[in-house]
C-alpha cells in the first residue's frame, strides 16, 4: 500500500494533502510533546508513502504557519494553538487565562453612532448611540485576536466610566455582569473561515494572506434583550474551536439565525 | 461622528475593516433579500463614513469572494453561504439537503493501511486495515467540501460492499447506522481556519489562497468505541457554522481533547 509509483492514479499533491491532514491535527492537539515532529524517515514509515510526499506535506504545514524547519533539529511546531471550547459561553480571556497571561490592548473605547444594521440587531432605536470597544488580545505577549464590540448604552456606559485599565484587565462578559449588573443569557454565534485583510494581518502580526476564524456573536441579557454584538478575528494558526456533539441531539430544531 | 478627516487617528484601512465586519455578517446571513447590497451612497449614510472607506470595505469582501461588482446592478452577493448548526451531530448532507441537491462524488473508497496516529485514534491494533473514503460534496452542482474519512473495518467494510452508488447518494452517518447497524454516540469536533493548499483549492474549484474551515471529527459508536475519523475541508465562502450558547453552561468542565 505504498503510494509512490503504485499507479493508484493519485497525484503527489493529493497524497501530500492526506498526510498533512493527519499531521495538522497532531500539531494542533500538541501531540508532539517536545515540539519536534518525527523525522522524514519515520514519517515515510508511518504513512507508507514516499519521502517526496512527506516533504511536500511538511511544506503545506509550513505554508500554514504551523511548523518550521530548524537546522540540526528538524521540523518543529511553531507557537501553540489554544483550544477554545465552543460548548460554553465564555469570554475568551476566561478560557485563555488557563493557558497564559492575557492582556487586552484597548485600541478604542468610546460612544459612537452605530451602523444601522448593528443598531437593529441590538434593538436600538435609530439615533441611539452605542459603545464601541476595540481590543487586541495577547496571550503571553503574542497577538491572538482582534475583538470589535458594540454594546447597548445601558451596559456599555458603566464600562466606559471605569476607564481603560479596567477594560485592559478584564473580560467584557465579566464586566457586564459585575460592573453593569446585567446577567447574561444566551448568545448566537456564527463562525467562518476568511483570509484576513491586510489591516487585520498587521494588527495581529500575522503574515499577509493568512486565515482567521471570523466569529460573530450576539449576546443577550438574561431577560432576552440583545446587549453585545461582537466581531472577533482569531488567528487561525493560534486557536482551534472544540466541541463534543451528541448524535441523540440530531433532531433538535435548527438554531435561530437572526 | 463621521470618520473621514475627523482626526480620530484611525487609518482608512481600519475604518474599512469595521464596515466590512458588519457587511460580512449581513451577506452571510442572507440579509440582502434580492442579493444586491445597498449602493455606495446608502452605505456612506449608514456607516457615517467616507465613500472611499465604503469602496475599500467592498473591496475586502470582493477579495474574500463574498461579493462581486456587476455592471449596471452594483455590488451583488456571490453564491450563498449555507448555515450548519454546530449543536447537532449531523452528517453534512443531512443538513444541506434542506438547502439544495447534495451529491457526493466518491474520489476514493478502499481498504488502506492507516497512518499510525489514525490507527491509534480509531483504537485499531497495529497492522489492522481501515476503510478510506474520500468524497467531494456538491450542493446544487457547486463544490462545498472535501471529506476524507477513515473508518474501522467493522463499520467501513459493509459500506464498501454496497458500492459507490450508495456512497454517492447517502451520508456516511446514516449508512453506518443503517447498513453497518452500528448506532452512533458522541463526536469530538475541532474547527480551525486555514488557507487551503493548492490541491484542495483545485478540487473545491476555489481561487488559490482562499480560506477553508478545517474540521476534524472523531465519531464514536454508542458503546464508546471510536469508529469514524474525518478530515473535512469546507469552503469558507460557502459555509458558516452556527451555535446558540448559554451563559449558564460556562462552568462545565473543559471538553475532552484527545
TrEMBL record, chains A, B:
Domain named HTH gntR-type: residues: 13-80
Record key words, sorted: DNA-binding, Transcription, Transcription regulation
Alphabetized InterPro entries for the sequence: Bact_HTH_transcr_reg (IPR050679), Chorismate_lyase_/UTRA_dom_sf (IPR028978), Tscrpt_reg_HTH_GntR (IPR000524), UTRA (IPR011663), WH-like_DNA-bd_sf (IPR036388), WH_DNA-bd_sf (IPR036390)
An example molecular function term from Gene Ontology annotations: DNA-binding transcription factor activity
Highest rank taxon of the organism: Bacteria
Matches recorded under SUPFAM superfamilies: Chorismate lyase-like, Winged helix' DNA-binding domain
SMART domains: HTH_GNTR, UTRA
UniProt keyword Ribonucleoprotein present: no
Pfam families, per the entry: GntR, UTRA
Keyword set includes DNA-binding: yes
Segments crossing the lipid bilayer: none
A biological process from GO: negative regulation of DNA-templated transcription
Protein name (database record): GntR family transcriptional regulator
Organism of provenance: Streptomyces lydicus
Amino acid at each position: 500500500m505504498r503510494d509512490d509509483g503504485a499507479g493508484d492514479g493519485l497525484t503527489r499533491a493529493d497524497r501530500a494533502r492526506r498526510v498533512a491532514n493527519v499531521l495538522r491535527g497532531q500539531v494542533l492537539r500538541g501531540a508532539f510533546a517536545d515540539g519536534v515532529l518525527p523525522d522524514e524517515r519515520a514519517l515515510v514509515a508511518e504513512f507508507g508513502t514516499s519521502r517526496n510526499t512527506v516533504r511536500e506535506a511538511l511544506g503545506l504545514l509550513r505554508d500554514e504557519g504551523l511548523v518550521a524547519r530548524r537546522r540540526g533539529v528538524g521540523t518543529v511546531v511553531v507557537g501553540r494553538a489554544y483550544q477554545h471550547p465552543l460548548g460554553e459561553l465564555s469570554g475568551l480571556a476566561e478560557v485563555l487565562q488557563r493557558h497564559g497571561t492575557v492582556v487586552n490592548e484597548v485600541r478604542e473605547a468610546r460612544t459612537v453612532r452605530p451602523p444601522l444594521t448593528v443598531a437593529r440587531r441590538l434593538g436600538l432605536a435609530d439615533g441611539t448611540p452605542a459603545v464601541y470597544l476595540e481590543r487586541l488580545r495577547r496571550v503571553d505577549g503574542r497577538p491572538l485576536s482582534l475583538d470589535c464590540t458594540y454594546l447597548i448604552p445601558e451596559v456599555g456606559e458603566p464600562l466606559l466610566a471605569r476607564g481603560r485599565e479596567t477594560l485592559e484587565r478584564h473580560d467584557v462578559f465579566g464586566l457586564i455582569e459585575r460592573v453593569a449588573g446585567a446577567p447574561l443569557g444566551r448568545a448566537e454565534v456564527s463562525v467562518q473561515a476568511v483570509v484576513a485583510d491586510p489591516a487585520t494581518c498587521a494588527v495581529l502580526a500575522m503574515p499577509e494572506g493568512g486565515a482567521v476564524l471570523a466569529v460573530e456573536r450576539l449576546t443577550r441579557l438574561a431577560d432576552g434583550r440583545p446587549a453585545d454584538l461582537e466581531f472577533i478575528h482569531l488567528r487561525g494558526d493560534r486557536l482551534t474551536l472544540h466541541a463534543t456533539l451528541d448524535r441523540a441531539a440530531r433532531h433538535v430544531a435548527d438554531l435561530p439565525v437572526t
